[in-house]
Amino acid sequence: MRFLDLALIAAYLIGITWFGARFRHSQKSLRDYFLGGRNAPWWAIAFSIVSAETSTLTVIGTPALAFKGNFGFLQVVLGYLLARIVISVVFLPHYFRGDLFTAYELMERRFGMRLRRLTAGLFLVLRALAEGVRVFAISIVVSIVLRLDPFWAIVVIVALTLFYTFEGGMTAVIWTDVIQMSLYVCGAVVSLFTILHKLPHGWAQVYAMASQADKFRVFDFSFSPTLVWLSQPYTFWAGVLGGCFLCTASHGTEQLMVQRLLAAHDLKASRKALLGSWVVVAVLFALFLTIGTILWALYRANHWQVPAKVDRIYPQFIWDNLPVGIAGLVMAAILAAAMSNLSAALNSLSSTTVMDFYRRSWPGKLEAHYLSVARFATLGWGVALLAIGVLAQRVDSVLEAGLGIAAILYGGLLGVFLLGLLWKQVSESAAMSGMAAGILGNLFVRFATPIAFTWYVLIGTSITIAVSLAASLARGEFRQRA
Predict the structure, then answer these.
(1) Which tens digit of pLDDT belongs to each residue from 263-289?
(2) Residue 104 phi, psi (nearest 5)
(3) I need a surface site. Which of 15, 183, 212, 409 has the fewest CB within 10 A?
(4) pTM: predicted TM-score of the whole model, two decimal places
(5) Which of 68-82, 135-149, 188-202, 292-306 has the lowest mean pLDDT?
(6) Beta bridge partners of 154
(7) Rounded distance, CA 216 to CA 412, Å?
(8) How far apart are alpha carbons 478 and 424 in whole angstroms?
(9) How far apart are CA 162 and CA 255, in angstroms?
């Protein structure tokens, strides 16, 4: 145990928990607790979006992707840009008409209460499962540093994050995100140059080895009308089309992201936050892929044995090989990413539980009552995520597992949102039928075909829209928006 490293990590954990909890006194209403009073600047919201989008799965999983493969994951990032443009033009204007707290209030406005509760319930399931995988990813880091059993590693981080999220609400989430985002970007840059320094010829050696092995390859334009082709997750077509649908669903329909967009002062600020976040995301993914490639070159040059779980390679290498002090800084940075995403998930799960279910079922209570319920909903979801994280220890790739879980359900969500925004006469019953078909179709694709997860959202969305429109046409309801 290196006491300086452990002291840095402990100082970070205590400091960020204290900082987040300080926002308790500004939480006077549900608007404060769930939307931060809509007072945060757009650039802070942009950093918060990136923090939610690039969790511990990114920090741990992205270097592993480059270690095993190449830079093909950047093709998905191109799809993320296209998605942000779609959301800015199609989704955001509707979210800023009225006083919305959650994405699913839009579904009630367009279809009715049943579909609002169905989409909100689907989000709760989706986010709980996906966040459970991320919680397990946290345990990988903490167990390496503290030599703890993964269960107790999960308990430590969940408890600390839960405390300041319980106290400070969305304001605490956004501003701790800004700090944590800055910390883990700095940690990644420091680790890159430190690892690079361990190679005798530095970047020239990495570039020569990686170029020869085609590790810097980004684009794969291969195409064939077969399931074998569709099983490749990182082709240009899967990246741009699949990445666009995946990001449109996650940022346009899931409360985790929509809540941040609604926290902006107005539509213009929300658009700036969303589009600005892409630049940071693109740089981050390129940075972590570069780290993975440098690690590959280092392992190959020294003929080191690769760990059985490649997801462990980056945090394990940092802790075992980086100088005292730097290792603690980088590990604190990885924990920053973990706590940032977890706090956002807790607040979004709480907001959906209270706004889409509890307050609709028990209206007319005092604001203080709903605020109290919101805090206890946060506590309840913290316990639930801890349990799911313990059960998620069998996954192979934490990054692809987290994205895969979400992608199965995103298709149905995105499909009904597009139906609500683009077609006037599709009924609630038709939309619910299409949504069920989209989710069932994706489950079939996931468990009965070799198709890669990057295609799930596109497939599920297409099935949802097609079945809904067919049902509306059969009932004489169909009329496309002029």
Answers:
(1) 999 999 999 999 999 999 899 899 999
(2) -85, -10
(3) 212
(4) 0.81
(5) 135-149
(6) none
(7) 35
(8) 8
(9) 18
